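Side project, low priority. Logging it here so it doesn't get lost.
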Amino acid sequence: MNAVAGFGVGTIVGITGVGGGALMTPILVLLFGIAPASAIGTDLWFAAITKSVGGFVHHSKGTVDREVLKLLCLGSLPTSIATLAWLHLTNASQLKSALLMNALGAVLLLTAVAMLFKKRVQAVGLKLRTVSPVDFKRWQPALTVVAGAILGLLVTLTSIGAGALGAVMLVYLYPFRMTPSRLVGTDIVHAIPLTIVAGTGHLMLGNVDLLLLGTLLIGSIPGIILGSHLSARLPEGVLRPAIATLLVVAGAKLIH
């Protein structure tokens, strides 16, 4: 059953770039009864390994924007390390399950909203980019680093945000530059170092179930290979509304 869940999530991640955390973490908590802290830590490594395979496929296809990737990492990786240090120093990693579930639910709802309004956000960015191109481009690098920092915080705390939220930020900041396939490729590859850093911290905190991780990966690796090959062939909006609906339902169930 775990392998089947891994395959399904891996395929969807490869096609849409939606973060594995937004899908796998609520599955682990709501369906498999895994403790939130363990689900977050295990999912970070699930995402890191799964997306490494998908990232290789996208890299070979030339669908990764390296300049944007560097700027995102400048913000996300230091923020992730700082967040892990805070978790360690304050023992916040031992937060009660109810609080973690509320945080997970809130980020899931935010992710669903981001997915549903992605095109509108892109339209706003497109308008600003057209009306004030010089000012818009001047602020692009700094805002990309800030976007990375926000993702670093959210992913480290909840394992959610690297995919759907990152995609929305990128289509706003780069409305012309980010084609659908380049968006998915850049989003996936950025998540790799971020989830490795965050996952390593959670492993040190004892929040990773290695046996569960292994069974999930059995299904996810072939799934994301399939999804990455299909991403350029399927219309961008095929799965997003359905996924967003599922995230709303899961988010509502997690919030107490």
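Brief comment: The mean pLDDT is 82.
Revisit when time allows.
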